From TrEMBL:
One of its GO terms (biological process) is sensory perception of sweet taste. The chain crosses the membrane at residues 6-29, 73-97, 103-124. It is found in: Cell membrane. It is a multi-pass membrane protein. Keywords: Cell membrane, Membrane, Receptor, Transmembrane, Transmembrane helix. This is (apollo) hypothetical protein. Belongs to the insect chemoreceptor superfamily. Gustatory receptor (GR) family. Gr5a subfamily.
Length: 184
């Protein structure tokens, strides 16, 4: 009896840990991008030199390199976790609708829990991409006296770089991806 409980506990930990881990990593990366965005917002209305914008652009490059390195390391985990969650949500929905007499509270609650876990994972992971593009609006508000080639390079970098976690580059977890998964 005790062994079966331990096996169930162990299985649940193995099943839920990757999603929790990816959510925590995404929250950390989002907080780094939020700090970077706050640094850009704090310069609004202040006189800045081109050397300052160069250091800001280099910081952005370092942050994006960290995100890309983590994406390379965790690509398998992201792919397997999201696809596993989508599979189990679809399987649970199939089991609910295939046999109308077998509908019970456990299956419905289990499906809702799986769907909640999937949506939480995808929305928190997509925030990395959303916050990486948030500073662009403030960069457009840089006054003409402060505008320099470094600001233009930073704008180009933030527009052209795909800063997001991905599932082995098969898909990038962006807000659009999150909305398409939530329509599932």
């Amino acid at each position: 009896m005790l062994i079966s409980y331990l096996l169930v506990l162990w299985g649940n930990m193995i099943f839920y840990y990757p999603g929790i881990f990816l959510t925590c990593v995404s929250l950390y990366l989002t907080s780094i991008m939020d700090q970077f965005n706050a640094k850009i917002i704090s310069t609004q209305g202040k006189m800045t030199k081109p050397s300052y914008w160069k250091s800001i652009r280099e910081d952005y490059g370092c942050i994006t390199n960290i995100i890309r390195s983590l994406d390379d390391l965790m690509g398998y985990l992201t792919l397997s976790t999201i696809l596993n969650n989508i599979f189990f949500v679809c399987f649970q929905l199939y089991s609910i609708f295939s046999e109308p007499y077998q509908r019970n509270i456990y299956t419905v609650c289990s499906t809702l829990l799986m769907l909640l876990q999937l949506l939480t994972l995808v929305f928190f992971t997509s925030e990395v991409n959303t916050t990486s593009r948030a500073a662009t609006a403030f960069l457009y508000k840089v006054t003409s006296t402060d505008f320099c080639t470094e600001v233009q390079r930073l704008i180009d970098q933030s527009h052209n770089d795909e800063v997001a976690l991905s599932g082995l580059k098969f898909f990038y977890v962006t807000r659009e991806f999150a909305l398409s998964v939530s329509i599932l």
